[in-house]
Amino acid sequence: MQHGPAVRRRKLGAELRALRARLGITSGDAARLVGWHQSKVSRIETGASGVKPADVRLLLDAYGVAEPELRELLLMLAGPDEGGGRHHWWHAYRRVLPPTYRDFISLESQATSVRTLENSVVPGLLQTREYARAVTRAAAGGRPQDELDALVEVRLARQEVLRARRPLELSAVLDEAVLRREVGGPGVMARQLARLREAARLPQVRLQVLPFAAGAHVGVTGPFVIFSFSSTSDLDVVVLDHLTSSLYLERKEDLETYTEAFHALQFHALSPEDSLDFIAGIGDGT
């Protein structure tokens, strides 16, 4: 179990090591190709030290990696290009975003699919502005108003991944408590439920409700998110969110456990069609 930056370095290093191995060259050979000392390649591959995007580009060029999506993903794992003037949109909000949240957003922006269990609030990717404001105020109410406003804007900007040319595939299981908890008042909640019904009709969104009648289930221990990437499954990661930080699980056995848990939750949840009806019923007060 690791914090975001450490996981990012380890995953980047492992993928670079695999790319080198496919060429059949040693770390010393790789170092000579890019004009480094062999120890620098070793530190990068083991995740012992950070690496600049410019250095990742050098290695990818040396290894003949031309696939745009894979290059972009590995460069994202290297972090912001501080010296090259190339920043992602969330860089403008770095003053109010903790590092773990920036890591979460960077993974979300490059993922092919996301599977999430929520048992408290609506997933951020599906929140209305009013709902997002109410949740942000409750979670970070002690912060200045301008920072609260910035956090809401970040939440809404994240939703662009659902409208991209290749939209993120989102599978969400919502505990019934998410729908019953009145966040922001009746009007805000009614509009949020309407937003969920709209989102559930998008081809890239699969939304299921886990009703109270399902009883105890594997998700009662807390929400989680599974990020998956088309370029390589080795970069898949589970994120557990906490009040002051996030934890990332990258081991194969952890991924398998959470994947099986999510499949079990989907099995016990209402079908997407019945979930739509269920949400509509709550919106109608039934």
TrEMBL record:
Positions of the HTH cro/C1-type domain: 16-70
Name of the molecule in the record: Helix-turn-helix domain-containing protein
